[in-house]
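User: Second chain of the day. Same drill as before.
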Amino acid sequence: MRNYELLFIIHPDVDEDNLTAIVERVTDLIARNDGEVKNVEAWGMRRLAYPIQDQREGQYVLMKLEMQPQGVAGLENDLHLLEAIMRHIVVRLEP
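Assistant: Same format as last time:
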């Protein structure tokens, strides 16, 4: 298993309850792709460097996880299907 960081930006109109539900959904997607979440940090609302979907702000969430390399592609495909997530990036951490 390798260590990864997943950073995703959620639409600013999502309220606190739905934000928690989205984070839980992403955690389930990671588990479904044979991964394990080690840490979740909600960074809150931040200004974007450039507009995304006509939005200038977004709610940032950082997750540290362990996953097999084959599961990353499946996770990224699943994240594209969640409409509330405007952008995401998965980065492999050095051991």
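Residues 4 and 92 are 4 Å apart (CA to CA).

User: Great, on to the next one.
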